[in-house]
Specification:
Order of helices and strands: EEEEEEEEEEE
Strand content: over 45%
Number of strands: 11
Largest sheet: 7 strands, mixed
Low-confidence stretches: none
Length: about 120
């Protein structure tokens, strides 16, 4: 049974940093593309960052230069390092695993609040 468990969210002041983690189990992790999404209150869930099985990364424009996605295949974990956080980054952050000809798997999310 595939499980994705996010952690690392919390309350941080504007300009601060957080590192989110997503630990995967029940899957051959290194073959999956991993994504981070966020969903702000009252808004749709949006893609933030992606890292493919070969380590290629992509970011939405609003986080380029501030967020870094990475993965540790030995630990079955994907990370999202978030720097220079802004109030508009406040959201629930979800990780997703995707692979061609397979269904997507989602974690339950971790809340990030950026406020003074």
């Amino acid at each position: 049974q595939v499980q994705l468990v996010e952690s690392g969210g919390g309350l941080v002041q504007p300009g601060g940093s957080l590192r989110l983690s997503c630990v995967a189990s029940g899957m051959f992790f290194m073959s999956w593309t991993m994504h981070w999404y966020h969903q702000a209150p009252g808004k749709q869930r949006e893609l933030v960052a992606t890292i493919t099985s070969d380590g290629t990364t992509r970011y939405t424009d609003s986080v380029k230069g501030r967020f870094t996605i990475s993965r540790d295949n030995a630990k079955n974990t994907v990370y999202l390092q978030m720097n220079s956080l802004k109030p508009e980054d406040t959201a629930v952050y979800y990780c997703k695993a995707s692979r061609v000809r397979d269904i997507d798997y989602w974690g339950k999310g971790t809340l990030v609040t950026v406020s003074s």
